Amino acid sequence: MIKTTVTEEKEVIVELLKNRYKTDKDFGKVIDEVSFYYGRKLMSFATETEDQRFVEDKILEVVSDQFFLGYFLMDQILKDPEFELEESYWKLAKGYVRNGIFPMLESIMEGSDVQWQQSAAEKNFTKRVVSKFYDAYDIMVQLRKDVLALGAYFAFIEHPNYKGAEQPAHSLRLANPFDLTFINPQVFMQPKYATENVEKWGLFQAESLKGGQWVGEIQLERRVNPQAEKENYLEIKISNLLEQNDITDIINKMILKMPAEEHSFTSIKYYLVSD
Q: What does the CA dihedral 89, 14, 57, 247 come to, rounded to 10 degrees?
């Protein structure tokens, strides 16, 4: 039997993921959306045309390589016969897995040089970013963590041992009350309260970013007025910790959750709040 080296195993996984990006539309969409998300953040710092072109040309490669590294790391961890994981982890809902995957990686890699987090493409990209527009350094650190965690998350939920959690039927409009719902790579929705006509959600930053900090609240109330007419009230409170692009995207995504035929009787209120 011919044994493969770790490097060869990594090359095989990367090649499979590259082909999957080309052939699996849903998978490709995930990577494209993350690339757009971080590319837009970086572009706000790139004031020179040359730097903007650099970000546009390289961001997909950087995100892809970082994702592939995360996938490979988790694949290797799960193959290690000495690695032990409680059975309950294999039964977590996907949102909870995603939110906990980076702390898991950090715990496993504790004591290792931080370079375990960096793909070659990300490392070279960060050097250029830091030398040209240093203020974007924090964005690069977060990109590194978030995309690495996303790749590791995919490897985890695609492992044969992963069973996931049962997802009972529900009638809520905005998200799944039995899981965490990520609305961008850094923010997720968590259910707080739900009845037949009212649903309330908390918005939190992912564990890889400031440890799950509260960044907002969303409430949808459905009523019938005295004239027997339907009325929807969507109230969105968002922390000023978030960037304006993120705030706008979150509001738009919540509006899209409402059926088009209900837009005419849906009132929307938006508040920017501080901690």
A: -10
Tokens of 164: 């996931």
Domain count, the chain: 2
Give 232-249 pLDDT, tens digit per residue. Answer: 999 999 999 999 999 999
Helix (H, G, I), strand (E, B) or coil at 45: coil
Beta strand extents in 106-258 (DSSP E only): 181-184, 187-194, 198-205, 214-224, 230-239
What is the separation of C-alpha 98 from the centre of its chain, rounded to a whole number of angstroms? 8
User: What's the longest Cα–Cα distance across the chain?
Assistant: 77
75 and 108: one domain? yes
Taking the CB of residue 167, how many other CB atoms lie within 10 A of it?
12
What is the pTM (predicted TM-score) of this model? 0.92
Residue with token string 């990209």: 125
Question: Over the stretch 53-99, which tens digit does the pLDDT of each residue have?
Answer: 999 999 999 999 999 999 999 999 999 988 889 999 999 999 999 99
Which residue has tokens 């009230």?
233
Same domain, 210 and 115: no
